[in-house]
Structures are given as C-alpha cells and as structure tokens.
Amino acid sequence: MYRQILVHSSHTPLQKILWRNDENDKLDTFELTTVTYGTSPASFLATRCLNYLAEIEGTHHPQTAEAVLRDFYMDDLLTGSNSLSEAKALRGQIIELLDRGGFQLRKWSSNSPELLQDFPGAACQDSLLIINKKANDRTLGLQWSSNGDYFQFMVSINENKGRITKKAFYPK
C-alpha cells in the first residue's frame, strides 16, 4: 500500500538512497518517489490518504466511505456485512472507491467462499490471517481463521528454568 502513495516532487530529494550492484561499481543515487514502508510517518501518511479519499469520494457511497474510515487497521481492511449480497455490494464499492485513489486491495480473505469466487487465486489470502503483526510484539498476537470464522491468540511461553525475577519477567 505504501508504494502506491506518491510523495510530492519537492520532498523526493529528502528520500535518497545509495545503490550499487557490485562493490567495485560507482555509487548511484536514487530518489524515492513513494512513501517508504518502515519510516516513521509511513503509517500516518497511508491512513491520512485513505481518510482523505473516503472524505472526498464519500458523497457517492456514504456507507463505503464509513467502512474505509472505520474498518482499516494499518493497511488491512477488516469489515463485514449481514448477508452475502450486502458483502458483494460493499466489496465492489470499496474496490471502486479505492481505485479512484490508485489503491489496489490484495490478499482478500473471507469466511464465505462465495465472496471470493470472482477473484483469481493470487488475490486471495491464506485461511489464517495474522492481525497483530508488530515486530516488537513477541508474546501476543491476534489471528483470524476464515475457515472456522473465529479469533485465536498466539502465545509464546518463556521456558525459563531459573529463578524468575522482575528483570526476567518483563522483556525489554
């Protein structure tokens, strides 16, 4: 998603990278023209672009704009409907709205296989979706199983055989 957001041309000189294919080659300088994943403002910029798109395009489909404003977590859209026909209509409207901003949704997942029948296999996600994928969150993560339509937690237990101290208990 981040690579779909262009940076203003006056800001690209602030996003330079050095590159060479071989250590004996001369260094080349490149300016990045899109938002770079992993930088401090990337998440804010992506969210702000989605919110702005929903605001300016929301007059055509207010429910779709509301879903975009309410149901995105980072770069994942987690939404739903009460019926298959409503879900198909919402899916089409979300695709249309985001396409107006140049965003292509990928890795579709659903607890209803009928909703995914129109998509090529490459556009669909595995049946287990890891929702909380922060690198620094080593002990607890939320996962959704689309096959069973349930949430589960991923827990990592420290098998420390020694004496448990405050320092050992609270990871850095």
Shape: flat
Taking pLDDT < 50 over at least 5 consecutive residues as the criterion, the unreliable ranges are 134-140
Average pLDDT number? 81
* Total of helices: 5
Q: Indicate the proportion of strand residues.
A: 15-25%
Query: What is the first-to-last residue Cα distance?
Result: 30 Å
Radius of gyration: 21 Å
Largest sheet: 3 strands, antiparallel
In total, the number of strands is 7
The spatial strand order of the largest sheet comes to 5-6-7
Structural class: alpha+beta
Order of helices and strands: EEHHEEHHEEEH
Kindly state the percentage of residues in helix.
25-40%
InterPro entries: DNA/RNA_pol_sf (IPR043502)
Protein name: Reverse transcriptase
How is this structure best summarized?
The protein has helices at residues 42-57, 62-71, 84-100, 113-116, 166-169, and strands at 16-19, 28-31, 72-73, 76-77, 128-130, 140-145, 150-155. It is α+β, with helices and mostly antiparallel strands and 172 residues long.
Any chance you could write out the topology, listing elements then pairs?
Elements: E1 16-19, E2 28-31, H1 42-57, H2 62-71, E3 72-73, E4 76-77, H3 84-100, H4 113-116, E5 128-130, E6 140-145, E7 150-155, H5 166-169
Antiparallel strand pairs: 1-2, 3-4, 5-6, 6-7
Helix pairs in contact: 1-2, 2-3
